[in-house]
Amino acid sequence: MADYQTLSREDHDGVAVVSFDHPPINLVDRAMVVDLLRLVKELEADQQTRVVIFRSANPDFFLAHYDLGSQLDAPPMALPAGVASPLSALFTRFSRLPQVTIGELRGRARGAGSEFLLALDMRFAAAQTALLGQPEVAVGLLPGAGGTVRLTQLLGRARALEVCLGGADFDAPTAERYGWINRTLPQDQLSGFCNELAQRIAGFPASGIAHIKAVVDNLSAADEAALVDESQRFVPGMQAPATVERVRWMLAQGGQTDGDMERDLGARLARYRQ
Fold this sequence. Notes:
Blueprint: E1 7-12, E2 15-20, H1 30-44, E3 51-56, E4 61-63, H2 86-95, E5 100-105, E6 108-110, H3 112-118, E7 122-126, E8 131-133, H4 147-155, H5 157-166, E9 169-171, H6 172-178, E10 183-185, H7 187-202, H8 206-220, H9 224-237, H10 241-252, H11 260-263, H12 265-268
Parallel strand pairs: 2-3, 3-5, 4-6, 5-7, 6-8, 7-10
Antiparallel strand pairs: 1-2, 8-9
Helix pairs in contact: 1-2, 4-5
């Protein structure tokens, strides 16, 4: 198996448990993306593993969001016409894995963290502590790695617009009611439930699992053209002056560190004033 820097993997009886561990906040940065690319390639070729659970070693953050700071001084990215962004394409590969994928959420998953969860087959969350959000609109962007598309599929038009245009945080009970996650559980029961479900599924014949996933995916897979359109709108927006200004302000307030700005990002981004 690959030597990972930002996550670990343990396997037992057909179930792989992937734990994100990238202090301080599990930022989706270059190192994380490199590890996710290695992991998805490994899983695509894995014929023994039937279920994968994704969880975090940090109880406060599942995956914080994309590393916006890395884009401030980077040369403009020219995305070819008709092509999704690399991050969107990566998450789509996770959505198409042969294994059943389960997200176990205890803390925060915003932006790309939420989008990664949306690419999984199922999501379960701690009722007291889990938070989800797509705050991109506050810096002049849209959820650009599948979030706008997959939220609309799962939540419907009106609720997807509420999430994406409002940019606020959503607690686990509300996310469950909206269809963003499968169900909430008490924090002390979450891992046990996910483990039991994974082991139950892994104990069934592989053919049945494959057939069910294939038919459900045929009916529910995210539209490729919509994902491309989403990326084509997101990538140029990263260089827009208003976006750059707001991202610099966010970083100056302590964004992308384990501080108040990140912990209350949904509310604090709305306080920006020129």
